[in-house]
Write a structure and sequence with these properties.
seven-stranded mixed beta sheet, 24% strand, Beta-Lactamase, Arc Repressor Mutant, subunit A, alpha+beta, single chain, three-stranded antiparallel beta sheet
Length: 247
């Protein structure tokens, strides 16, 4: 909902006038007012103490994790995607170290539902079992895509071809589903973005397709942002390569 995104950009837990929200959202004020009333009814937004103001409470985003490795670009992307989709969102960096092989490091996360946290973190020891891991493995072939014993991490060929073609990997559990996309530097995934929700959120194919579009769009915006280019070159993963740890 555009007014919710506008409130997030204006500032969480702060009162904002309808006119300011409408301007930020690119809407006429009457249209913005109707959407804000609907958002209040859905429990996403509340009225401010001053007449005609609205507040987006930070608890709408639920549990948030932002590590020292995160950046304003990463954090804003994760929050924006969570508000766009209503799903939990996580950003992982791809790495490799001796004795571990390829791994995913959680850098930033928004999780509205505590029960989803383990799934959102994509912490399965076998990367081939999680959506983020499948995306990372698909776009990091060769010596980097290996397990702790140095054995290659291989996906079923048709699955890997589908992930490479659509730039989206999926994992499905009894109660939760997840979609992940790589953030590419060249042809290799230096990070992944993942959305996770209850299985029912993905039951409608059109809705699931919309989630995939929003996910890919967010990843492309990140990869093309000047701030991302400077960060990967100066402080984070080397351009075109996941970061590696010395023995």
């Amino acid at each position: 909902m555009r007014v919710v995104l506008a409130l997030a950009e204006l500032g969480l837990d702060q009162e904002h006038q309808v006119g300011v929200i409408a301007s930020k959202a690119g809407l006429q004020q009457p249209h913005a007012s109707r959407l804000l009333r609907a958002a209040v009814n859905e429990g996403l937004v509340r009225h401010g103490e001053r007449y005609g103001t609205y507040v987006l409470p930070s608890e709408v985003l639920g549990v948030q994790v932002s590590t020292r490795s995160s950046t304003p670009l990463v954090h804003e992307t994760v929050q924006h995607l969570a508000l766009e989709t209503g799903l939990a969102v996580a950003y992982h960096e791809t790495g490799w170290r001796p004795g571990t092989g390829m791994y995913l490091e959680l850098v930033d996360m928004v999780c509205p539902n505590l029960h989803l946290r383990d799934t959102v973190e994509q912490s399965h020891h076998d990367l081939r079992k999680s959506a983020a891991g499948r995306a990372a493995v698909t776009f990091n072939s060769g010596a980097l895509a290996c397990d702790a014993l140095g054995e290659p991490l291989l996906l079923e060929p048709r699955l890997q071809e589908s992930i490479r073609k659509n730039r989206v990997a999926a994992s499905r559990g009894p109660d939760t589903w997840a979609l992940a996309t790589p953030i590419l530097r060249g042809d290799m995934a230096v990070a992944t973005l993942t959305v996770t929700g209850a299985a029912g959120c993905f039951a409608d194919q059109l809705t699931a397709s919309d989630f995939a579009v929003l996910l890919r769009r967010a990843a492309v915006r990140m990869a093309s942002a000047p701030a991302w280019s400077r960060w990967t070159a100066d402080g984070g993963s080397q351009p075109g390569l996941p970061h590696t740890d010395a023995a």
